[in-house]
Amino acid sequence: MSGPHDQHAAWLARTFGRTDYLPITREDAAALAGAGEMLDKYKGTHLFKEGVASDAAYVVHSGEVELYRTTEGTRHLITRLGPGAVVGDIAMFQDRPYLSSARAVTHSRVLRLPRETLMPLLVSRPIIAMRWLIAGLDQLESTQRSLLRLMNRTVLEQVADLLQSQQDKYGEVRLSQASMADLLGASRQSVNEAIAVLKTAGAVETGYRFIRILDQDAMSHASTCGTCKNKANGSGSEQGEHALSSH
After folding, report:
1. For 143-176, what is each residue's pLDDT tens digit?
2. DSSP string covering 210-237, please?
3. Same structural domain for residues 202 and 107?
4. Is 24 helix (H, G, I), strand (E, B) or coil?
5. Strand partners, 68
6. Are residues 124 and 10 in the same domain?
7. Which residues are registered as beta bridge partners of 103?
8. Are residue 144 and residue 73 in the same domain, yes or no?
């Protein structure tokens, strides 16, 4: 495989859905790649917008894409997705307007698959259809895990867990505190206080729109420690700092 089309097909075979389940053939991957077009999306540009008629689904090739909804002029972050993720397919399959907006957080490449070419392809190639189903189920499971992580947990525990799940290979998290508050359904003040506890304990350091994890063990402890309370629960940050330092 040498041309751009073949390279895209090879990428899909390696990353789309669970690669250990129902291996995709070269012909299937080439058919999927040929059903769409690769687009470059620069930071801040949209793949689609909430409420617009859905005419295509997208597979993220590289970069990072965020999904958000707007309520009374305020944007609420839903999630951020990276390479291999599928966006826009639920609305497209239901022939309904997009439920949210999708915007490139960084320079991103995405494979746009129009409904008129994707639907016949899924009908004619069951392996691709199954891989598509598995990719969607994986994202649904990830969403369910995120919801479970929020149940009966302090904001400090939620913040520590979110930072661990979103960190890159360098231990950095490129999320603003406002975005973290949106993802957790918490107030920005309570998120700020939780980060201050982690920073005072030496578990993280902060910069402009990023957080770097310095102590993975302390973060793991904070994400599961039932005694780690924050000010939002009326116990102040000192207990959280004590719980981390006593680890």
Report:
1. 777 677 667 678 888 888 888 877 888 888 888 8
2. EEEES-HHHHHHHHH-TT---GGGTSHH
3. no
4. coil
5. 77, 101
6. yes
7. 46, 66
8. yes
